[in-house]
Amino acid sequence: MRRAGCRCSDPDVRDAVLDLLLGGSCVACGRPGRAWCAGCRPPPGPARPAWPTPIPPGLVPPWTAADYDGAVRAALLAHKERRVAGLAPTLATLLAAAVQAAAPPPVLLVPIPSRPGVVRARGHDPLLTVVRAAARALPGATVAPLLRSRGGVRDQAGLTAAERSANLAGSLWCPTGRLRRWVGAPARVIVCDDVLTTGATAREAQRALSASGLVVEGIATVAATRRRWPAGRSGQEWTHVEGGLSSRPPVD
Length: 252
What we know:
Blueprint: H1 11-22, E1 48-49, E2 62-64, H2 70-81, H3 88-102, E3 107-111, H4 116-122, H5 126-136, E4 141-143, E5 148-149, H6 161-168, E6 172-173, H7 176-179, E7 188-196, H8 200-211, E8 216-224, H9 236-239, E9 240-241, E10 244-245
Parallel strand pairs: 2-8, 3-4, 3-7, 7-8
Antiparallel strand pairs: 1-2, 5-6, 9-10
């Protein structure tokens, strides 16, 4: 009798099976077992505002669930570059917390796209995987990959905030056919990304969606890099207000 081969078409399930068969360890501490052990996973908690410094003009409120360092940085890189499937659920939980802080349901989650060549080289789209997993955990959330990336964008590593903004200007666009069902819909539009650094990418995504007739309510990310505040200022001075956290940027 001919043995039936594995015909699993779900890449997330296939990757999880490979992790199980090949063995694994925590990407942060190396402990054998789960890809992100209980001791290294960040505890669940509320998201916080993540205004970069300087703030790109017109940027809507950005929210994040973690700092981009330590175990969170290791997990994001391992999921992105090594396709460690077991990390996606926890990363999705962090992103979901940021989405909940950004706007109440219903929400339309628009992931920032990677360049097509990068997706092909990696063999998967890590951000889209995490956004879809986050949406499954959020009532009233829908994923809409509306944005497309144009060519000609330089690698962002090492660029200043001003250089990143100039590099990304006009780099994202929305195909008309994908927009028709969403323009005028009641869902609040949230741009999603894995990491917020200077805010240039998020601002370009906001520009492209706004130019297509969609109103962006906020930015939600898994993590954000720590940015220095001007002398004599700290993020704590403006984030804590009566009743919770403020989504307003710091003012002098």
